[in-house]
Structures are given as C-alpha cells and as structure tokens.
Specification:
This protein is an alpha/beta fold. It has one domain (22-329): Metallo-beta-lactamase, Chain A. It is built from six helices and 15 strands. It has an eight-stranded mixed sheet with strand order 1-14-13-12-11-10-9-8, with helices on one face. Strands 7-6-5-4-3-2-15 form a seven-stranded mixed sheet, with helices on one face. A hairpin with a 4-residue loop joins β10 (221-227) and β11. The longest helix is centred in the C-terminal third of the chain and has 11 residues, at 303-313.
Length: 331
C-alpha cells in the first residue's frame, strides 16, 4: 500500500516538535493550563490526580496517550481508542515503514484496560485500533466503530456479536445511565491537505491485518460519553470535524485532538464554538506515541499555540494537560 502525504509526523502533518517546558504553560484565570503533579514519574506508578482522591460516584479518566482513554464510573469501564503497545515504525527518525509488523504488548495492555464493557474506536489506523482485537477477545467487550473497523476486527477473529457499527448520529443507551452518542467526524490533514492512508473496507480481508500498511482510516468518528450524574465527555480521535455534525452537543469536557497543520480553517475557535465552549478542554494526540508511557510526556505536536488559541477563543474554559495513566476527575 502506498501511503500518501507522509512527512515528518507521518500521517498527522508538518508541525515541529514542541519545545521544552511547553506543557506547563499557565495563565491567570479559569483558562489556565492545569496538570497533575506527576512530572518525572513512571506512568505505571502514577498517583491520583490533583483535586482529591476520586469518590465511588465520580467518573474517572485515564489518558492512554495518543487519543486513548479509559473511563471508569463505579464498576463500569469504557475505553476509547486504547493504544498502549507503542511499537516503533521509524516515524520519528525519518525511516517510517508501512511494512512494520503489528504487535501487541499483552502484559502492558492487560495491566491497564481493566474489564471494559465498551470499546469505542474512532478510526482504523494502527495507533487507534492495534490493541483492540486483543482487548475484545480477552474481555468480551462490545466494540463500537465504523464498518471498516467491523470488518478488520472480524478478520482478527472478534465475534460479530461483539461488534456494533455506527455512522454518526446514533444515541445509544447501554443501561444504568450510560449513554454514548456517535458523531460523524473527520480525520486530520497534513499541510498539503491530504489524508493519511484513506480508504474503507467493505468485507473482511482474507487474512488478518499484519502490518501498519494493512490498515486504512475507514472514515472517522467522535463520541460523546456520559454516565448519569457525571460529566459528559466529547472524545476526538483526529483533528478535524464538521460543524453541522456537532449541532446540539454541549459536553462538559472535550478531549480535543491537537492539529499538526493549519490545513483546517480556524480549527480551534470553530470547534469550541460548535461545542458551546466546554467547561474543560483536554488536549490529546500531541505526544510522541512511539515512546514509553513515562511521565513527563514527550510532546510532538505544537501544543503551545493550541493552548493559546483555546485561551483566546474560550477564556472561561479550563485547560487540563494530561499525564499518562493518571486518574483524573472533572467535577
């Protein structure tokens, strides 16, 4: 497979790596950047985030890096784009290879995903779907995603009974106060306005995907997840959107993918306006996702300009810059 539009950040574009100290940017007032106090610690030993220990009724969020999240509410767990394995493709030294084999660090994945009942998948690039087949097969979780995600997971041996296909616009009630809304979204583009590895899959491949080049985008989704009594969270897997698809969404928290190019016109102000300027914004997909899950996070995307744009577009919004695997609540 030829992968068009590959450049310094491979499929995400042309932004330069963020500088030292960038993620500790702070400003006076409610739009200050905030982060848990785990700098310099291994992510596997991360402690509860600032703001007090979570209570039994809190919704607790843990960032898996890239776009991935674990969301816990009581005994219930939902995952979004859970990618923990983080193998090397040559992405950061200019030797990216589409022939890189897909591998799963089962011990690492099993240690952090819990017993999810749902796995939400935004799209089918490897840094979003790679660990999902293992999670689905070992936990029995229901996976919600696109038709492409469905067919790829079938090729990986995940039973059809565990798979739910959505296109955007579905509001799914999973009982006990858990509601998930699927949102038709868009993948980010590089500086030449190109998608990385576009395409869709309309039937299960004859052989399971084995390399990163076997995985196309397959369209992109976002999701809004809410537990009764908890905050609603808008989850993005890539940094573009269609305003019309966001009509009526008013999340309390927005996990916003940081753009790597300026190909999308006024991305931050348009997105925040469409979402009603959420109370809290959490930037995602700004880290070097081929490095270990160790704090402090190594940035790749231009996080500083993104934070400045949020402060300008939504001065009443708090920005929380996450650390890996650190429990966090958004009361």
């Amino acid at each position: 497979m030829q992968l068009p539009g590959l450049d310094r950040r491979a499929f995400l574009g042309t932004a330069a790596a963020a500088g030292a100290g960038l993620v500790t940017v702070a400003a006076a007032g409610p739009a200050a950047a905030d982060r848990p106090g785990t700098a310099g610690t291994a992510a596997s030993g991360a402690t509860a985030a600032t703001g007090g220990a979570p209570s039994a009724t809190d919704t607790v969020y843990r960032w898996f890096g890239t776009a991935g999240w674990r969301i816990d509410h009581g005994a219930r767990t939902v995952l979004f784009d859970p990618y923990l394995t983080r193998f090397t493709t040559g992405l950061y030294d200019g030797t990216f290879s589409e022939r890189t084999a897909l591998t799963v660090n089962t011990r690492l994945v099993d240690a952090h995903v819990g017993r999810p009942e749902l796995v939400l998948v935004s799209h089918s690039h490897w840094d979003h779907i790679n660990d999902v087949p293992h999670i689905a097969r070992t936990t029995g979780a229901t996976v919600v995603g696109t038709e492409t995600t469905y067919h790829l997971l079938r090729a990986w041996g995940v039973p059809a009974a565990q798979l739910v296909v959505v296109r955007g616009g579905e509001v799914l009630d999973f009982g006990g106060g858990l509601v998930v809304e699927a949102v038709a979204s868009r993948h980010s583009r590089n500086a030449r306005h190109q998608y990385f590895a576009p395409g869709t899959v309309h039937a299960a491949p004859a052989r399971p995907p084995a390399t990163v080049g076997d995985l196309v985008e397959g369209d992109t989704l976002a999701f809004q997840v809410a537990f009764a009594g908890g905050p609603s969270a808008f989850l993005m897997g890539a940094s573009d959107f269609a305003e019309r698809e966001l009509a009526g969404l008013r999340p309390d928290v927005a996990m916003v993918a940081v753009p790597s190019s300026t190909a999308t016109h006024r991305y931050v102000p348009r997105l925040l306006a469409a979402l009603g300027r959420p109370r809290t914004v959490v930037p995602v997909h700004w880290d070097r996702f081929e490095t270990e899950l160790v704090n402090p996070v190594q940035p790749d995307a231009d996080l500083g300009p993104f934070l400045a744009q949020v402060r300008q577009a939504a001065p009443g919004t708090r920005v929380v810059v996450p650390d890996y695997l650190t429990p966090r609540t958004f009361r």
